[in-house]
Amino acid sequence: MRNLQGPLLLLLLGIISVSEAYSFFSRTRGSDRKENLVIKPQGKIQTVFKGESFFVSCSSDADNVQRVMWTGPEGQQITDYRGSVPYNEIPRIHVEDGRSGHKGVDLIFTNISRKDRGKYTCSANVDGVEEERSFNLTVLKHLDFMDTPTTQYLEEDHDSVLRCDVDGDPAPRVSWNINNRKVTYGTKYEKGTEHPNDLVVRNATLQDAGLYKCVALQLSNFISEVKELAIEVKVHHKPQWRDNDNMAQAYGYVTGDVNLTCEAVAEPHANFTWIKDNQIIEPNDTVQIINEDHKSVLRLKVTDVDMFGDYVCKAENKLGTLERVIILEEGKKPAVPEAKVTEAEVNAITLELDAHNHPDMPILAFRVQYKTAGDSWSNAQSMEFKRGDPYVINSLTGDTLYVLRASAKNAAGYSDFSSDFMKRTKKIHESQSQISAGNSLSAAAHVLIPFFLLLASLL
Known about the structure:
By secondary structure, the chain is mostly beta strands. The chain has helices at 2-32, 428-458, and strands at 38-40, 45-49, 54-60, 65-71, 93-97, 103-109, 118-126, 129-144, 151-155, 160-162, 167-169, 173-178, 181-182, 189-191, 199-201, 210-219, 224-241, 249-252, 257-267, 271-276, 279-280, 287-292, 295-301, 309-317, 320-330, 338-344, 349-354, 365-372, 381-386, 392-393, 401-410, 413-414, 421-424. Residues 1-33 have low confidence and may be disordered.
């Protein structure tokens, strides 16, 4: 029995070797075997973006290929072929004959929707054997802020919500910036309860206005994308007087014009109303009302003394009302100024202006109108100078005759214009000749002065 142990062991080793060789041969032959049915592009997952178009081919190089067809995620066969329906009725998902002359069918997707996601399978009978290949369609969506308003509002002294309606697949993560500072959630700022991408601002104040940014981030194995949307945030609040609007008294005179100005900041913008003697003032031949953002100007042409008195400016929006009284008093009309030209250059004229001061109505400024000779005063240009400033009109044309006139201004308004006076600007060569003459005299002085000094020392 012991003599048989050696041969039996050798026989067993031989059987194992033959088995391993057969297994290796089978694996090698399997790896060399061509696929009977192939889909391209290859891959178990095909990733596309919403709205894109693409196609997947399914084909075989075998001699006997029959019944190549595609089925959708619900197991339904996709039977719509190009040519089977009118061109404008071709479904977004349909099949066509292979494009390269191969034995197969292409699956066509146009304007892909996220509802198209799922498993698609190509099957065929190849050389008498049923074969099938599948892929999963993943549809991604670029970040889209949809209908998020780029201007939004907070309510003063209330908790308010700022919207950020952002969509994407995969679902984005959202953060907020305020004036380029990242928002930290806490007692002042919180995530929205119904919509986590929204921002809740607690107890809003005017200081919460500014430039906000909703920042959205997508990150997955298939996509990395960041987008931000700038949102101008304003705070709804009741009217507030502007710091520089301190007008409480104004002056005018009969036959003069006067402007009463009222400025109040509000959001929404305030509606302005002017009232005198408990009557709302309406525009007419002697009254103009000029409304701008946060500002109203009542322009009066004073025709009689009854127009003096108290004027009420009321600024109102849905959150509150402000009222201010401006007292229009009768003042003194300024005296007509004395005006004359003291110097003329090629492109500038220097003036001397003066006017008599009333003790309680000092002259504040002068207005000068000027035009070229022959033009109408309706085409004249105008400059206003504070009293005591240099009275110089620049940017004129050389060798041109100008006609000028001046009026004085005090708190009650402007005086009548002075009589017209004229002055011609210099020619450019005159100015250059004077400079040259001055240079020549200066050069001569440099030569003659030392000579006279020497002569004086000899005497």
